Structure to design on (192 residues):
């Protein structure tokens, strides 16, 4: 038979065990505040990485220039990669001219000879077949002299809207290192 002293001892031991179990459960389950702070920290880290990526590696340009219609329309977002400046004919790139960013298409690279004749755009003596270009390629009166051979590190760029684009027919060949980067994606914002 249990005496009163034994019962009191058992009850005290049970209370100590219950208190110990409660502490362990509390330590195993973080508080709601801790969960919220952890979530905010993760969101902050992800936002910081995204900001760094779009500051130093990638860039965004909202097109407001009609010079690339119909491929790149007014309001489209061009995502460009800043470190890819090894261009090939047909690539789209972003460059700055007189403080304004513009998207243009590369039509010739270093070593190519570019001429604009009555027949149209000639690269290395061959007339260029451009099925997506709907306007004739003509020289501008105040532009550079043709034919021209591009030196190392230079590219010749044209807008797809050939009648009113400000491109290499105005400012001549572009130094590839002076461009902002190669367009890797276009996001339509209007006229979907």
């Amino acid at each position: 038979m249990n005496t009163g002293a034994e019962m009191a001892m058992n009850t005290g031991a049970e209370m100590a065990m219950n208190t110990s179990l409660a502490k362990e459960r509390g330590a195993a389950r973080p508080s709601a505040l801790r969960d919220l702070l952890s979530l905010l920290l993760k969101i902050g880290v992800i936002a910081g990485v995204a900001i760094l990526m779009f500051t130093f590696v990638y860039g965004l340009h909202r097109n407001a220039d009609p010079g690339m219609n119909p491929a790149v329309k007014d309001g489209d977002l061009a995502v460009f990669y800043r470190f890819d400046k090894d261009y090939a004919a047909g690539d789209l790139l972003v460059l700055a001219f007189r403080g304004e960013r513009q998207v243009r298409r590369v039509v010739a690279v270093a070593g190519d000879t570019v001429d604009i004749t009555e027949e149209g755009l000639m690269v290395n003596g061959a007339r260029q077949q451009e099925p997506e270009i709907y306007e004739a390629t003509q020289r501008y009166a105040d532009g550079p002299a043709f034919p021209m051979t591009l030196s190392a590190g230079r590219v010749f760029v044209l807008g797809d809207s050939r009648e009113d684009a400000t491109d290499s027919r105005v400012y001549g060949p572009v130094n590839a290192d002076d461009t902002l980067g190669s367009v890797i994606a276009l996001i339509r914002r209007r006229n979907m």
